[in-house]
Every structure is written in C-alpha cells, then in structure tokens.
TrEMBL record:
<protein>
    <submittedName>
        <fullName>DNA-binding response regulator</fullName>
    </submittedName>
</protein>
<dbReference type="InterPro" id="IPR039420">
    <property type="entry name" value="WalR-like"/>
</dbReference>
<dbReference type="Pfam" id="PF00072">
    <property type="entry name" value="Response_reg"/>
</dbReference>
<dbReference type="InterPro" id="IPR016032">
    <property type="entry name" value="Sig_transdc_resp-reg_C-effctor"/>
</dbReference>
<feature type="domain" description="HTH luxR-type">
    <location>
        <begin position="155"/>
        <end position="220"/>
    </location>
</feature>
<dbReference type="InterPro" id="IPR001789">
    <property type="entry name" value="Sig_transdc_resp-reg_receiver"/>
</dbReference>
<dbReference type="InterPro" id="IPR011006">
    <property type="entry name" value="CheY-like_superfamily"/>
</dbReference>
<dbReference type="InterPro" id="IPR058245">
    <property type="entry name" value="NreC/VraR/RcsB-like_REC"/>
</dbReference>
<keyword id="KW-0238">DNA-binding</keyword>
<feature type="domain" description="Response regulatory">
    <location>
        <begin position="6"/>
        <end position="126"/>
    </location>
</feature>
<dbReference type="GO" id="GO:0003677">
    <property type="term" value="F:DNA binding"/>
</dbReference>
<keyword id="KW-0804">Transcription</keyword>
<dbReference type="InterPro" id="IPR000792">
    <property type="entry name" value="Tscrpt_reg_LuxR_C"/>
</dbReference>
<dbReference type="Pfam" id="PF00196">
    <property type="entry name" value="GerE"/>
</dbReference>
<feature type="modified residue" description="4-aspartylphosphate">
    <location>
        <position position="57"/>
    </location>
</feature>
<keyword id="KW-0597">Phosphoprotein</keyword>
<keyword id="KW-0805">Transcription regulation</keyword>
C-alpha cells in the first residue's frame, strides 16, 4: 500500500458516487482513483488501476457487488498487496453479510454510516484490517452463538494445518478482538500476534480478517 490510499468508488447511482467521492477526496491521505457504475465495470477498472480499496455497493444492475467480489477473487486481484473491498449497502441483511465476507470482503458498511466510520473503514481496509460497522460485527457474533450451521468438509479442511495457538488466534479474530487485544488475552507480544494472524490467513486461504471471522464462526466452537 502506498502512503496515499487510492480508492475506486462503485455505485450505480451517480449522486451516491459523487457524494462518496467528495467525502473521500476531502481527506489528505485518500484519493479517488476512479469510479464505476456496476460490478462488471468495477472489475475492469480495478484490473487497470489496481486501487488499494474498492468501496462497492452490493445492489447494482447487470452485475452486482457480490458477483464483482467473486470475479475479483477469481482473477487474483484481492488480498494482501492487492486490492481490498469494502461492501456498501442500505440493507443490514444476514445473507449479504455472510456472502460478502465469505467471498473475501474486508468490511461491510451501511449507507447510513457516519463520515468518520466511512473514512476510518477505508483506512482500516487499506491497512489490511477488518472494517465492520458495530451492528454487523454484533450480527456475526450473534450468528455464531445462535443457529450456527454444520461446517462443510471443505471448511474444516482449511483449518487442518493450523497449530493449536493459531486456532486460538482465529477464535479471537472471530470474536472481534484487535491484534492488541489478542496480545493482551494470550499474554504475548504484538509482533507475535501479527505473525500468527498472517499465518492463519495464509493457511486458511482467507483474504481478510473478516473472511477468517466468518470461517471461524462456521467451524469453531
């Protein structure tokens, strides 16, 4: 990631695109590299511009945000050293949260989020952190505590190479703890936690902490 955070704004409504772009461009450390009006255009523009972060609506005509997210992953455009995706929507629905995070989104923001939440989420995503609104984080935790489905064989296989300590770290990621909080909980250094988190993401094939949290919710008690 460069010192200046480049963002691609994706939304089918011109007024929304313009408003989001104006907010982000007003920040000294953020620049809007481009815009797109649907998922298909978003993938093509992302491949050309390689922005640090895509701020992308879910509901769009022709190709929606979930399709674009999957296609970005298929083309190898997501993850560490590549682009991160923040999903933006009006609707706080479980199916969208699960689908977006499981596909590798770094965060999920509601359109009524504050300016501070929006810009903070962009910075967090660019730095490789999860960027979830408090309401969405709570829904993930509650989804784990009530009604967790049976994990698939493929999901369980992704945990096979984790050490016992890495499983502990994954469980704490699921519970929404930051690296500093994990370090305090496990009584280890922050550097050690960062190493564990990096190994967890690599071994499980997760492209973000948020994706790891969904995997952990579905597989760990």
């Amino acid at each position: 990631m460069s010192e200046q955070i480049s963002v691609l704004v994706v939304d089918d409504e011109p007024i929304i695109r313009a408003g989001l772009s104006a907010i982000l461009d007003s920040q000294a450390d953020i620049t809007v590299a481009g815009t797109a009006n649907d998922g298909e255009e978003a993938v093509e523009v992302c491949a050309r511009l390689r922005p640090d972060v895509l701020l992308m609506d879910i509901r769009m005509p022709r190709r929606n945000g979930l399709w674009a997210l999957a296609e970005l992953g298929r083309r190898g455009l997501l993850g560490p050293g590549r682009s991160r995706v923040l999903m933006l929507t009006t609707f706080d629905l479980d199916e969208y949260v699960d689908d977006a995070l499981a596909a590798g989104a770094s965060g999920f923001l509601l359109k009524n989020s504050s300016y501070e939440e929006l810009t903070g989420a962009v910075r967090a995503a660019a730095a490789g952190h999860s960027a979830l609104s408090p309401a969405v984080t709570q829904r993930i935790i509650e989804g784990h505590l009530s009604g967790r489905r049976q994990p698939s064989d493929q999901e369980l296989a992704r945990l096979r190479d984790l050490t016992e300590r890495e499983v502990d770290v994954l469980r704490l990621i699921r519970d929404g703890l930051s690296n500093a909080e994990i370090a305090d909980r496990l009584v280890v250094s922050l550097h050690t936690v960062k190493t564990h988190v990096s190994r967890v993401l690599t071994k499980t094939g997760c492209q973000s902490r948020a994706q790891a949290a969904v995997l952990a919710r579905n597989t760990l008690s």
